[in-house]
């Protein structure tokens, strides 16, 4: 479960860091966004595998329910951070898409 917890924590940290870096100039912020997204995807894959392996060896139904909720939290936090990072990357690459 260490990768699942690490992935959830990193997704929250990536979301907060992406919003904090938002004020930087485009040349400085874009590599940060791309690296955060790459690390987040890698940890998400490892975290899902970790949660699935722990779910396979769950002893009782309470433990299985807890592991399923951890997996659901992992997925929700990942998608929140990837949506924000994707928006910020797209806003830097093609700013005319979001121009009013």
What would your notes on this structure say?
This protein has 100 residues and is mostly helical. The chain has one domain (1-19, 28-95). The chain is built from three helices and no strands. It has helices at residues 2-21, 26-56, 61-93. Keywords: Membrane, Transmembrane, Transmembrane helix. The chain crosses the membrane at residues 30-48, 69-90.
Helix and strand composition category: mainly alpha
C-alpha Rg (nearest Å): 16 Å
Number of strands: 0
Question: What's the number of domains?
Answer: 1
Strand share of the residues?
A: under 5%
In which range does the helix fraction lie? over 70%
Labels describing this entry:
100 residues; mainly alpha; 3 helices; elongated; transmembrane
Produce a short descriptive summary.
With 100 residues, the chain is mainly α. It has helices at 2-21, 26-56, 61-93.
How is the topology of this model organized?
Blueprint lengths: L1 H20 L4 H31 L4 H33 L7
Keywords: Membrane, Transmembrane, Transmembrane helix
């Amino acid at each position: 479960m260490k990768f699942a917890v690490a992935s959830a924590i990193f997704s929250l940290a990536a979301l907060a860091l992406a919003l904090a870096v938002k004020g930087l100039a485009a040349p400085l912020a874009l590599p940060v966004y791309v690296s955060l997204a790459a690390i987040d995807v890698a940890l998400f894959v490892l975290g899902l595998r970790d949660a699935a392996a722990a779910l396979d060896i769950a002893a009782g139904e309470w433990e299985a329910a807890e592991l399923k909720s951890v997996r659901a939290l992992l997925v929700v936090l990942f998608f929140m951070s990837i949506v924000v990072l994707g928006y910020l990357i797209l806003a830097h690459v093609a700013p005319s898409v979001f121009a009013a």
